[in-house]
Amino acid sequence: MRFILNVVWLVLCGLWMAIGYVIAGIICCLLIITIPFGIASFRIAGYALWPFGRTTVERPDAGAASLIGNVIWVVFAGWWLALGHIVTGIALCCTIIGIPLGIANFKLIPVSLMPLGREIVPVD
């Protein structure tokens, strides 16, 4: 079932959301000081392509630097990506088949707002 949901996700919104994360990552990697944001964005792009069967957990070693980085991320890129998840989530929830995909989009909003200090792990 996860495979089917991932394929439908990829076709309907996963590819577009991943492209958004890759663009944000490329922009962040242009400046040396924002390379950690770019790396986090590339990591989330992979998660946005194939989210079912994986989840995010907080890293125990994340500290004050992650908090400060997340605040900077929200100001410059996070809210744009969260807005994309909100719009696609609402659009997907308009159909019965798209409701699980819309819910998955809403679950990606916290990750898009605060990517630093989080790790993507398999559900198993």
Domain count: the total is 1
Q: How many helical elements?
A: 5
Instruction: Give the helices and strands as they follow along the chain.
Output: HHEHHHE
Instruction: Tell me the Rg in angstroms.
Output: 14 Å
Structure class: mainly alpha
Helix content: over 70%
Mean pLDDT across every amino acid position: 88
| Contiguous runs where pLDDT drops below 50 for at least 5 residues | none
In what range is the share of β-strand residues? 5-15%
Largest sheet: 2 strands, antiparallel
Note the overall shape.
Answer: globular
Tell me about this structure.
With 124 residues, the chain is mainly α. It has one domain (2-122). Helix content is 70%, strand content 8%. The chain contains five helices and two strands, in the order ααβαααβ. Strands 1-2 form a two-stranded antiparallel ribbon. The longest helix is centred in the first third of the chain and has 29 residues, at 2-30. Pfam families: YccF (PF03733). InterPro entries: Inner_membrane_protein, UCP028777, YccF. This is YccF domain-containing protein. The chain crosses the membrane at residues 7-24, 30-50, 62-80, 86-106. Residues 4-54, 68-118 form the Inner membrane component domain.
